[in-house]
Specification:
The complex is a heterodimer. Chain A is an alpha+beta fold. In chain A, 29% of the residues lie in helices and 31% in strands. Chain A is elongated, with a radius of gyration of 24 Å. Chain B has two domains: 49 residues, no CATH class; 227 residues, Orthogonal Bundle (MetI-like fold), CATH 1.10.3720.10. A two-stranded antiparallel sheet of chain B has the order 1-2. Chain B starts with a helix and ends in a 7-residue tail after the last helix. At the A-B interface, strand 6 and helix 2 of A face helix 9 and helix 10 of B.
């Protein structure tokens, strides 16, 4: 199990565009760490710097105790699974896996043993002499995975490996990757822009935006205790509802933690706002509503069914409310929270 | 209303008829087929037929003589020499052309001002006419006043008669042909290299593949469709070489640089021996057909199409 350490890491492309500036991060040994963020946030660049596929402009990266700056790719004891699988189309499955092993001088007997073992692990034993063109997308992804496992690396790097798969296969592969991580006990670094994938797979999530780390924590922490507005709105499906208050701060609440009632229902503790259902999305067991209220438009996710244009009462319980300051950082100070709460109450009352 | 409906019906019927005629695929490909038939197929059968005849347009002779024309060319040392020269020319220009093209392509397959400029510069000979190139190289390779011998002398190396010598004339022509074709071959190779996805290169780097390992195990196999294209077109093109011979050496000195097509031209249109010229044309066609078939059956199987 290997730790990855980033010290003041910087990445500037030719032409002067800096995508990552002075980033510090520790990826714990044996963790399944997810780098998540919107497109262009630098997560793939960070991953590729670990593999030395991108030059490190500034700072240092350590894999274990080893400084990897300037090392040729392939000498960092990592294995990578690409979004496009990157398996060699002109080689059979066997040769795809053997190729890297041969280049590092692993004897033939050992190579054959590893190939058989990893293919059995990913369930592709019968495809050993088949070329990639005869395999499905899921099978190709397994070949890429098998190739990575065969190298017995210290770190597995995965760059959106499930993006090209259909929804059902993606869900299946997610479980298999989680199981694989449990078996191998290696450090996994997984890049995705899909925060549902991030929340379900990782034991540590690093949320990134514009080359900076917005928050690092467990899935529960980043969901229940977002440190800033970006994490609050990015994490969660859908993200947090926001309401600007007149002192420049922002109140937020999760669509999932909001209750809807018929207008005649007795108002519970907390804030209650009247609104109308303008959009209704059926999500299987749940419904996602977009409500029009006097204080703004908000999304609510609930199992209860309401009709289009139906008037409703939206309840915001105090413990489910979050407050963020002018700099979009989370407010933890009790008195400041009290002040925000009062302003929220005014806004709700005014909106009635 | 009735009249309007009738007019509309007539229009629909005409449109339908027009669609039927001009929408029919055979009608659409007819112009190309007619051109091919008139300028390729018909002359082919004409030549095939006349190759078995004593055909003299000047004296008005046209008599069946069986295989006599074929016997005459295969016992003619000048024809055999031209045929041999053509094989040597083909092997050298195609072989070295592809090798140099790959080397230059690998070197120039980068972005940036200098590389883009160099790509344009090496492509320039391909678009210059053979006339201009021949005049230029005849000056460069002039044994007495040419730049080539001047450079060799200043380096203390022996000079050459180049196009004026029997041993060096074919070699001189091959240099010019390679120089002219290098830009085209390199650009085709560069296009083939850029067709290889970047993540394949990255995967290979992670697999510690570099240098000759990367070239032989990854790049060349994925470049094989491009190389096969260059091989097939190069063989057919080199067998049909005429301009450069006619302009630079006229097949000499003493037939030493004569190639098959130029020999056919000389025999048919300078010496008016149409029968042997046509027999040689048929032999030329047969050789191209056999070589193309061999290319497809032997090398075609090794090509990997993505």
């Amino acid at each position: 199990m290997t730790k990855i350490l980033f010290e003041r890491v910087k990445k500037t492309y030719p032409g002067g565009h800096t995508v990552i500036e002075g980033l510090d991060l520790t990826i714990d040994p044996g963790s399944f760490t997810i780098l998540v963020g919107p497109s262009g946030c630098g997560k793939t660049t960070l991953l590729r710097m670990i593999a030395n596929l991108e030059t490190i402009t500034g700072g240092k990266i350590f894999i274990g105790d080893r400084l990897i700056n300037g090392l040729p790719p392939g000498e960092c004891e990592i294995a990578m699974v690409f979004q496009n699988y990157a398996i060699y189309p002109h080689m059979t499955v066997r040769k795809n896996i053997e190729f890297g092993l041969k280049n590092v001088g692993i004897p033939k007997g050992e190579r054959e043993r590893r190939v058989a073992s990893v293919l059995s692990q990913v369930g592709l034993g019968e495809c050993i002499d088949v070329k990639p063109s005869a395999l499905s997308g899921g099978q190709r992804q397994r070949v890429a995975l098998a190739r990575a496992i065969s190298k017995d690396p210290k770190v597995f790097l995965m760059d959106e490996p499930l993006s090209n798969l259909d929804a059902k296969l993606r869900s299946q592969m997610r479980s298999e990757l989680i199981e694989l991580h449990r078996q191998l006990k290696s450090t996994f670094v997984f890049v995705t822009h899909d925060q549902v994938e991030a929340m379900t797979m990782g034991d540590c999530i690093v949320v990134m935006s514009d080359g900076r780390i917005m928050q690092k924590g467990s899935p529960k922490e980043v969901y229940s205790d977002p440190k800033n507005l970006f994490v609050a709105t990015f994490i969660g499906d859908p993200g947090m509802n926001l309401l600007k208050l007149d002192n420049g701060s922002t109140a937020g609440f999760r669509p999932r933690k909001t209750r809807l009632f018929k207008p005649a229902a007795k108002e519970a503790a907390g804030f209650a706002v009247r609104g109308t259902v303008t959009v209704k999305e059926v999500l299987g067991g749940d419904f996602l509503y977009l409500l029009d209220t006097p204080i703004g438009r908000f999304k609510v996710k609930t199992e209860d069914e309401f009709d289009f244009d139906e008037p409703v009462l939206m309840q915001l319980a105090g413990e489910n409310l979050y407050y963020f300051d002018k700099d979009e950082q989370r407010i933890y100070d009790a008195s400041a929270i009290g002040g925000c709460r009062a302003r929220l109450a005014e806004a709700v009352a005014h909106g009635r | 209303m009735g009249a309007e409906a009738a007019v509309a019906r007539t229009r629909r019927r005409r449109r339908g008829l027009l669609n039927k005629v001009f929408g029919c695929p055979y009608v659409l490909i007819a112009p190309a087929v007619i051109l091919i038939a008139v300028f390729s197929i018909q002359p082919l059968f004409f030549v095939l037929q006349k190759s078995f005849r004593n055909f003299d347009m000047v004296q008005g002779i046209d008599r069946f003589i069986g295989l006599a024309n074929y016997r005459s060319i295969f016992t003619n040392p000048l024809f055999l020499q031209a045929l041999g020269n053509t094989f040597v020319y083909m092997l050298c220009t195609v072989g070295f052309g592809i090798v140099f093209g790959v080397l230059f392509g690998l070197f120039l397959n980068k972005r940036g001002g200098m590389f883009d400029l160099t790509q344009s510069v090496i492509f320039t000979p391909h678009i210059i006419s053979y006339v201009s190139i021949s005049v230029m190289w005849m000056w460069v390779l002039d044994p007495r006043a040419g730049m080539a011998n001047y450079l060799l002398q200043s380096l203390g190396l022996p000079t050459s008669m180049w196009m004026r010598g029997e041993e060096s004339s074919l070699f001189s022509v091959m240099i010019v042909a390679l120089w002219k074709g290098l830009g085209y071959t390199s650009l085709i190779v560069i296009a083939g290299l850029q067709n290889i996805p970047p993540y394949i290169y990255e995967s290979a780097r992670l697999d510690r593949s570099r240098g000759f390992n990367l070239l032989g195990r990854i790049i060349l196999p994925l470049l094989s469709p491009t190389l096969f294209f260059l091989l097939v077109t190069g063989v057919i093109g080199s067998f049909g070489t005429f301009d450069i011979i006619n302009l630079m050496t006229v097949g000499g000195p003493n037939n030493s640089s004569n190639l098959l097509v130029h020999w056919i031209y000389q025999t048919g249109f300078q010496f008016f021996r149409m029968g042997p010229a046509m027999a040689a044309s048929v032999v030329y066609l047969a050789i191209i057909a056999v070589i193309s078939l061999l290319n497809f059956t032997v090398f075609g199987k090794k090509v990997h199409y993505q």
